[in-house]
Design a protein that fits this description.
By secondary structure, this protein is mainly beta. It is built from no helices and 31 strands. A 5-stranded mixed sheet has the order 20-21-22-23-27, with no helix packed on it. The protein has a 4-stranded antiparallel sheet with strand order 1-31-30-29, with no helix packed on it. The protein is globular and about 55 Å long.
Length: about 425
Amino acid sequence: MRRIDGGRRWLLCRRAATSLVAVVLAACGGGDGGAGPGPVSPPPGTPPVTTPVAPPPTLAVSGPFGSAARFTAELSVGTRYAYTTTWGIRGGVRGNAFFVWDALPDAPLLVDSVIVADAGTLGDVQLVEDANLLVVAVEPAPRGAIVLYDVTDRTRPRLLARYETANTRNGVHTATVARVGGRLHGFLCINPSASEPARLVIVDLADPAAPRELWVRALGQPFVHDVFVRDGVLLTAEWDAGLQAWDLGGAGRGGSPANPVSLGSVATVGGDVHNVWWLRDATSGARYALVGEEGPGTVGSSASGDIHVVDVSDWGAMREVAVFTVPNAGAHNFWVDEARGVLYAAYYNSGVQALDVRGALGECAASARDARGRCDLARAGRWLGRALHDRGTYVWGVEGAPNGTVLATDMLRGLWRVGRVAP
């Protein structure tokens, strides 16, 4: 993601063994499982809202850029250069390559490409600029791993190490790099297999050429998909087991990256908890987890799943307070322009959606609440813009670019540039 959240982007049925143009994701549907407090109850007499919401302005776009020989997957953007991965198998071409882009020109320039050896498919990628490090997640076959590159020269990644153990062999679907106590760590979400559960692996990356395993735990129902780390707290997206918070040393519960301590969990409506971004509002101090739900769909044509807002002001009593829905479309990864309080969400078959996430997200007029009592962010006037919703795209990821725009990865056609919401 990326960012310090994650990224990231997988249903168990997305296997790369066959052509994936028509892979059906419905077998990975959701539920209301998990622990912790459930969604808030609607105030007495609150009517369900059925009136359509007028769509917001369309943001400017340019592109696509790059080749459609492979499915495009995740991206990570630095102060000038961006990196995009590929995924699955398209027309017999495996998603085992990542690309380096000069992101400053209006039309991003492809400056290098790298084939990752022994990769069934790629997915996650993250640039850590202050460490001159690039991390790429690898899924089978034959071996799951993370591959680490020195990017002192941003345009020429140099292989440092391939980290693979018995605990990564089923495939690293997402890999998030974050500093805890000033020290670099990797948080690896490992695919389940027929005989082994999904698990989270935490590794010490103080020496990126020699990662060191610190902690392994089976998590999720049926898998842990992504994480977000901030201020010494880890959030884990655990599909139908919901969202869980862990102390890594920032919450005063005695936790550390080698011994995370659970702070609490919550089940969001619909399950399928795919990714999360922990947002702390700069003005009000309000704390929310922005949760992406990836529901059933078909790669390239359909998707489902909402964005859920969870109040995390009390880790032991987290509760869902708001939701954003695009009919007949589904959320995937997102990025938050925290300085302006704008969430940009990759919304698969509905392009990119932009939301105002400033202030108290759980407070709205009764007419803007749904039947469960949650604030409907669109009805509350927080739907700010959209793009690529009418271009036949299937957008996987989105991230802020160095020239004041946003880059978005379209699985079908490559990279797009999207204008940001006007201040």
